[in-house]
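Supplementary Methods, section 5.1.

A reviewer requested that the exact input to the structure prediction be made available. We therefore reproduce it here, unchanged from the version used in the analyses.
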Amino acid sequence: MKKKCVIIGTDLRLSYFHTAISNELNTKLVATMTWDDELKNAIDQFEPHIVFLPIQPLKMECPFILPASCEVLFVGKKNKEIEQEIERKDIEVFSYLEDEQYIWDNANLTAEGFTNYFYTHEKQAIYNKQFIITGYGRVGKRLAHALHHLGAKVVISVRSEHQLFEAKSYGYDIETLDNVLEKQKNKSAYLINTIPSKWLENTQASLFKQVFDLASNPGCLLDTEENIPPNYALATSLPGMYFPQDAGLLIAQSVQNHLAFLKGEKSSGKGS
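The structure derived from this sequence is encoded cell-by-cell as follows.
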C-alpha cells in the first residue's frame, strides 16, 4: 500500500514534483500558502504519512499542528511556528534546501536562468560585458563559470581571503567587497549579488549600470523598500521562473533519495 503524501504550496515547480512522485506515493497537492483551519482539517482527513512544506514559510492563521499520522516532514525555509512543531513532534525532518546535491543542481539552473533573465530584460549580449559577482558560494561559482564561458569579464568580490584567492586560481579577477565600491567610476559594470544579507546602501546602487539581486528576500539593500533605486532588480527564484519542470524534478529527486535512505535505515534496523 502506498504511503500518503500531502504537498502544500502554489509554486509551479510543485505540480511537476507532484507528478514525478505520484507513481510511488499516494499524493495530494494543495495549492495554498496559508495554513488555516480549512487546510488543517483537509490534511487531517487525508491522514498523510509525509508532509511537504513549500520553500517559503506558510502564512499562519491558526496553530501549526501536524496530523498524528505524519512520520516525515519535508521543510523549506522555517519560521517560528514550524520550528516549534518540529521540537514538539517526534518525526523525521528533512530540510531539502540543505541537500548538497539539490543545492548544486539548483545553482546550475539559477546560473542558466540568470542568462535568460539578462537577455530578456537588458536585451544585450553577455559577451564582453563586465559582471561583478558579490559572494562566491554555489550560485556565485556557477554564475561565474557560465558568464565567463559566454565571454564576460567576471570579477569576484567577497570579504573572505580564502574565497578571493580560490576565485583567482580559476582565472577570475578579484576585489575585496570593501574596495569594489570605491573603484566604480564609469558605471559600466553590472553587479550580481548572491550574498543573503543587507550590505549595500541604496545610493551605492547608482555606481553600477544595473544591480541584479539573486539573494532571497529582503535582498542586499540596506534602506527601506520605498527607496528602491531604479536600476535595482530583485531576481529571485529564477529556476522556478524559467525552468519549473526541471526545478520540480530536482525537488522530487531530493525527496526520493531521502525516502530511500530512510527506508534503507529501517530495513537494516538502524532507525529503531
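The chain has two domains: 4-98+244-268, 129-236. These observations are discussed further in the main text.
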